[in-house]
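pasting for ref
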Amino acid sequence: MIIKLNDQNHEIKEGATIASFIEDLGLKSQGIAIAIDNEVIPKNEWAKTILLENDELMLIQAVSGG
């Protein structure tokens, strides 16, 4: 199944959650936010939010510094 993350296609397994997808990408959940179709998903919902075919995700990563 195909989803988009920041305008790039990714193939994922059916039934994948946000949490499992982020883990598969090798990212840590600290300092990032995820939106699906422009709606931010609270971090405590990631493990139970199942991704669907053609979902469009936006990943925003906090950067420290000044």
